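Box 3.1 A note on notation
Throughout this textbook, protein chains are presented in two layers. The first layer is the amino acid sequence; the second is a token string describing backbone geometry. Keep the layers aligned when reading.
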Amino acid sequence: QVQLVESGGGLAQTGGSLRLSCAASEHPAYPYAVGWFRQAPGKEREFVSGISSDGRRIAYGDSVKGRFTISSVNTKNTVIYLQMDILEPEDTAVYYCAATLYQSRAVVRSGSSYEYWGQGTQVIVSS
């Protein structure tokens, strides 16, 4: 069973930065497609960013475009970073990374399409 471990959450001030990491426990024969999602109290889960399995496509949710950057350290996408800059109080949420071995050239935006999920890491942005 693949395990995803997130780290890097914490407390930041408005305008500050945090970097989240997501590491997969297994190195697959084919690359993962990976996504970051977040869920704030009382709100639905929201797509934040994702990278396609071939690593050629990246996508961001409208609310984080221009502020967040997703990156991968290898071609299998087993370690993914989410650099979060110019943080806003509205970014406060639990952030989850998710992975799927479904091979696609597109970024997977739907959470239901991912079979592996991390435990989540809390991000709090103070005003």
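The chain has a mean pLDDT of 96. The longest strand covers residues 93-100.
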